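Intended use. Records like the one below are meant for learning the mapping from a protein sequence to its folded structure. Do not use them to infer anything beyond what is encoded.
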Amino acid sequence: MTTILMVGTRKGLWIGTSEDRQDWSFTGPHHDMEEVYSGLVDTRGATPRLFSGSSSSWLGPQLRWSDDLGATWHETPNGAIRFPEGAGATVERIWQIVPGVGDGVLHAGTEPGAVFTSTDGGANFALEEGLWNHPQRPEWGEGFGGQAFHTVLPHPTDPNSITAAISTGGVYRTTDGGASWNARNHGIRADFLPEDQRYPEFGQCVHKVTRHPSRPERLYLQNHGGVYRSDDEGGSWTSIGDALPSDFGFPIVVHPHRPDTIWVFPLAGGEEGRYPPQGQARVWRSDDAGDSWSSYDVGLPADFYVGVMRDAMCVDSHDPAGLYFGARNGSVWASSDDGETWSQIVANLPDVMTVKVGVA
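Structure written out for the chain above:
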């Protein structure tokens, strides 16, 4: 089987392929000089379809797709993902593109903070107006990276249930197909607020949320300060980051076959340098849903003073699982043994924003 890796950067997209996860071949840049914040290797069809969400300073955002591993690309007029007339907003970036429940269903998260849904394989998208018109939306803040729905998690079996997260608004969930959305942030702290206001109903700076399809009620969350687990689909959250060297970071990834195994890439806190503690690249893994943690750095560099962004770490479906991350110095690292040993598979790319993988 072929492992396909999409590496989106601030100046284009690179596509890697490997038959053994040891030797890699890369093509690129695709969409040269465009910011690529989102990607998807959609393996639901007979052949893999690659989706790339890019943004040009001249032409704006565009969702493109390729059925031949990037040899040719297709796009729709005006970028496919756009606000309807009268919404009073324009899509600036596509931060997330994920498969939904059902053939041809896709969900996208954008900046400004909105979620869109396509039922025709990405040709057309409709705004989730229940979320866009949420009464709390005017009070959502904006993180340093912008206000964007960077996480969209369709329930694996219920097409009416979606969990989404935004910086800085927090976690929201719909159970009625998008007609209504409820804040799901109980127990997540907001360190940037006064002491007596640090657990608000909404307004948390959530960095990423993930879950395993076999246990959809359990969610894992990396916050701007704090790593959390929820066992009731976001109804309440419990801190699981106390044993980590820092509870600040951006990505959080769940194992493809073991719902209790997760990985994070801690960085020094938000008030310090946003690079790994002591400048040593380390991936931390928990095999008991966050009750304990172990670090892995074999093959990873010291003197690593760069960060890893929220969508720049991912896992493939092999067994043992392959783990991948890209850094802001343009290096991409891979492990084929559940994250225990690492090697660099490409270097000297532009600033890496997203890394996505699929197996076909």
